[in-house]
Amino acid sequence: MTAVQEKPKAAAPSGPPPRRRGKRATALAGTDKLVLALMLGIPTFVHLLFVWIPTLGSVALSFSRWNGIGGFEDIEWIGVGNYVEIFTEYPRFWPAVQHNLIWLAFLLVVPTAAGLLLAVLLDRELKFSRVYQSALYMPMVLSLALVGFIWQLIYTPDGGLLNSVLGLDEPVDWIGDSDINLYAVLVAAAWRHTGYIMLLYLAGLKSVDPALKEAASLDGASASQTFFRVTFPVMKPVNIVVAVVTVIEALRAFDIVYVINKGRNGLELLSVLVTDNIIGEASRIGRGSAVAVILLTISLGVIIPYLYQVFSKENRT
C-alpha cells in the first residue's frame, strides 16, 4: 500500500488580522464645511487683526523714532535706541517700575489673604452664604474705571465718605497727596480683586477630598494644622492660578489710575507710560511701543511657564 501523503496545513497568522480600510462613517456636507470655516475663520481673523498684528507692529515700531505724522516712509529706524533711552535717561520709567512692584506685592498679600479667609468662612456652609458670595463678588463685575469713579467719591477731601467717617479736623487729600495716593488706590483695587480670589479659593476648597480632612482629624490634627498641612498644599493648582492672575492684574492696571488723575503725581505705572507716549501731547510712538514691549516681555515671563506647566501636566495624564 502506498501511504497517502497529506499536504501540510498553512500556519495560522500570529498577529491580529489586518484592518480593512473603510470609508469614514460620516462626512461633512458642503454647508457644514462652510459653517465650520466661518466659525473658525472669523474669530481667527479678528484675533489676528486686533491682537497679533498690533503686537507685532508695536515690536517693530519700538526700534524706530516716529511721531505718527506722515506715512510709514517717515519712520526713522534707530535700532535699540529707545530701549537705551528708557533704561538710562527716561526719568518716569523706574518710578513706574517701582509702583508696579508695589502694586504686585500688595495684591499678592492683602487681597489673596482676605480672599482665602473669606473662602474658608463661606466653605463652612454659613446661613445666607450665597448672598454673601454674591455681595463679595459684585465689585469684580465692575470695571476698574467705574471702581475709580466710586472711590473718588469716597476719597474726596471735602464731603467724602472716608473723611466724614474719620471726622478729622483737617481732611486728608487721599488722592492728591503723592505720598499716600498709591496706597489709597491700591485699597480700591484690592476691594475689587478680593472677590475674585475668594471665588477661586472657594472652588478649590469644594474640590478637596473630605477623606483627607477626616484622616488628619483621626490623627489628632487641629483645624489649623489640617488646613495648612493638608488642605492648602492640596490646592497647589489653585494657588498657581491665583498667583498668575494677580501678576497679570498688577501689570495691566491702568483704568483706575488714569480715571483718578491720569496716572500722574505718584500714580505712574508702566501702562500709563505707554499711553502718555503714544497719544500724549508730544507723540513718541517709538518710545511708547518700547515700553509696551517691555511690559509684554514681563507678562510673558509669567504666562509662558504657567502654560508650559498646564500643557505638560495634560500630556502626562
UniProtKB/TrEMBL annotation:
Ranges for domain ABC transmembrane type-1: 97-306
The entry's keywords: Cell membrane, Membrane, Transmembrane, Transmembrane helix, Transport
Localization of this protein: Cell membrane
Stretches the record annotates as Disordered: 1-23
Record-linked Pfam families: BPD_transp_1
PROSITE patterns, per the entry: ABC_TM1
Coiled-coil region(s): none
Topology with respect to the bilayer: Multi-pass membrane protein
InterPro entries according to UniProt: ABC_transporter_permease, MetI-like, MetI-like_sf
Domain of life, per lineage: Bacteria
Entry-linked CDD domains: TM_PBP2
Residues spanning the membrane: 34-53, 101-122, 134-154, 180-203, 238-260, 290-308
Family listed: Belongs to the binding-protein-dependent transport system permease family.
Designated name of the protein: Sugar ABC transporter permease
